[in-house]
Amino acid sequence: MFSSKVGTPISHSSGPQILHPRPVHQPSTIKRATNVTPNTHHISRRPLLSRLTWALLVSSFAISQISLVHFLHAEEPAKKPAPILLFDGQTLDGWKKVGGDATYSIENGEIVGRVGPGPNTFLRTQATYGDFELKYDVKLDTPGNSGVQFRSHQKDGTGRTFGYQCEIDPSPRQWTGGIYDESRRGWIYSLDKDEQARKAFKIDDWNTFVITARGPHITTSVNGVRCADLIDTADLEGFIALQVHSGKAGQIRWRNIQLTPLGQSAWKPLWNQKDLAGFRAIGGGEWKVADGELVGTSSKEESRHGLLITEDAFRDFAVRVEFKAITGNSGLYFRCVEADPYGVAGFQAEIDPTKDVGGLYETNGRAWIFQPSAEQLKKAFKPGEWNEMTVVALGERIVIHLNGIKTVDFIDKGGRAAGKIALQLHGGDDMDVRFRKVEIMRLDDIACCTE
Q: What range(s) does the 3-keto-alpha-glucoside-1,2-lyase/3-keto-2-hydroxy-glucal hydratase domain occupy (predicted)?
């Protein structure tokens, strides 16, 4: 880190119309009389000129209409894919039950799940989905905890399901619409501070849910009320599943389950694991590739900061690195520009052998924005081992995870919107830091709520 000065922490919170051009109008065919003897003594030029003028006007109009048609079609927005019915109202084709012994049946075009013995039970799709918008209706006949899994998986091919779950929570807590990470991290988006969202679910009536997942950005709504607005990169694809939670009581109904595919987000290498192509070294220290690792070293006598910076700049993106900090202070720069006196100005996700890992620092700016607590570090960081860090910069929102644990969720109002990515060697330190994976996901076409 370029400075040890601690700054003041900054608080934070949480169908296109298609134009159809008018058809090109062709002039009507004019039949001429054939039984009229022309006056050869005096032929007026006006009819001939009128016909020529009319022809020119029609040609110009037709050309302009063709140009208009071409322009409108060229600018026409892409059509949103048609939704897919995941449940046809009559059969459970495309679904299978895993986990416990709850039962699923079809009544009146609805899937009815009833509590049974054993652990949580899931009716899952056989297909998997990446980016999508999922809509469905839910009604509780008998109140009980439930939910809908998405981008989910099974452990070792068994019925133990893990992954994101849009919660159905009729308890006094009222966290319906929040996001629970089943069999993994637990609650990752609760509704404890959102009274409007907690009141959206109707216990004795049908409720309409919408889940939208695009890249790392996940939102949920219940009856038109926004509930969750999550940034998370743990899973980019997986199956959909209807949960019946274990317990003594609970009967749940689902209907109108439809999914609109929105493509598939994926990580791509930013570093090719062979050489330094796409990067440029500036400042002190040395960068080399050895045994499939990107190794950065520098001596304590080197006062200059060393940086391995990308040739390209990026606006909205997610970047993921696997690193091992052996000695010295390092960092993952993003939305940065080259500037004196430290080589760059911009954001840095902290990398260090012992402290502040996963924090957010702004070089040539606000200094420390967030420093993780000792409790966060104890839970998330593995000293001396390989660690995974992800940084998502989406609009004004910046989110950092360390080994799946969120350390920063920050709204940067009117701040840095784009820049390069760089790896740091801190000057004045005996440096040894290693990377074995540097990946990126472009998010330029994904909008993000920053409220």
A: 84-259, 267-440
Query: Which pLDDT belongs to residue 76?
Result: 52
CATH topology identical between 84-261 and 268-442: yes
Domain ranges, ordered by start, for the chain: 84-261, 268-442
pTM value surpassing 0.70:
yes
pLDDT range class, residue 219, cuts 50, 70, 90: very high
CATH number belonging to domain 84-261: 2.60.120.560
3-class SS letters over 264-285 = CCCCEECCCCCCCCCEEEEECC
Which fold does the domain 268-442 belong to in CATH? Jelly Rolls (2.60.120)
- Residues whose CB is less than 8 angstroms from the CB of residue 411 and which lie 6 or more positions away in sequence, other chains included: 12, 13, 396, 397, 398, 450
Q: What is the pLDDT of residues 235-294, one digit of tens each?
A: 999 999 999 998 777 899 999 999 999 999 999 999 999 999 999 999 999 999 999 999
Q: 220 near 211, Cβ under 8 Å?
A: yes
Judge if the upstream peptide bond of residue 27 is cis by omega within 30 degrees of 0.
Answer: no
